[in-house]
Amino acid sequence: MRANKSFIFISIIMGVILQIIPMPPPMDLYRPDWLLLILLYWAMALPNRVNVGVAGIAGLILDILYGTALGVHSFALAVPVYLMSANYQRLRNYSMPQQAVMVLVLSALYHLIVYWLVYLITGIEFSWVFMWPCLASMILWPWLFWLLRKFRRNLRVT
């Protein structure tokens, strides 16, 4: 029974690994937000287990691994996860294309928050290239949702 509950932790660790794994430079522009997608799934499926606190800790780990100022990714992950967990009952009833559009919006919000916070610290200029991962996350959402739901049901994660 305990192994079933640790699947959430394992999936979040896998999201962190997929988020930082090296990719070829042309493909890196389109890297989906793996950690955000996994946190959004768990916030929608089990909002009592994965919430803003888990997103904040995962964001701190991401800040440490990326070498950014502490709290940038933590805050940027916490906002979309909060919005998902606050509206999980409504979003569960959406069709898959509607959920994918919501993931696009939440991913765009995540990237804009990261940009704004990094802009305040370093003054970097905005480029639309920052938004390509949002489209990749939207396209990947149905498959990741299906995969995580299949594991959650088979392992009886509650």
Automatic annotation (TrEMBL):
Ranges that cross the membrane: 6-22, 64-88, 100-122, 128-148
Domain of life: Bacteria
Example GO biological process: regulation of cell shape
Biological source species: Glaciecola punicea ACAM 611
InterPro entries noted in UniProt: Cell_shape_determining_MreD, MreD_proteobac
Alphabetically ordered keywords of this record: Cell inner membrane, Cell membrane, Cell shape, Membrane, Transmembrane, Transmembrane helix
Gene that encodes it: mreD
Role this protein plays: Involved in formation of the rod shape of the cell. May also contribute to regulation of formation of penicillin-binding proteins.
Protein name, UniProt field: Rod shape-determining protein MreD
Coiled-coil zones: none
Cellular location(s): Cell inner membrane; Cell membrane
